[in-house]
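Hey L., structure's done. Input below.
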Amino acid sequence: MPTRFNLLNHTIRVKENPARHDTGATGVVEYLLNEIRLYTDGCTDSVVEHAFYHELVHFLFYYAGRCDLAEDEQLVDTIGGLLAQFEATKRP
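Output:
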């Protein structure tokens, strides 16, 4: 899991929190802080990884100027899941 990465010259920080989010979410984005927060309490590694890719897709759409797509949770979750599977199964 990365701790930070850049998108369009913005540094996005990834913070893991061993607690549970108030809403039960596994991850959240904070656009104005350039931050992804992952809540890991009771989660398997694969759930946390999927949450990371889900939140990453929010930022990809946000910085691509497509806030409308960034708010489409079904699309974001599908693309996030596809990216997670790609990353987990890619071979040289």
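Residues 45-63 form the longest helix (19 residues). The mean pLDDT is 95.

-- N.
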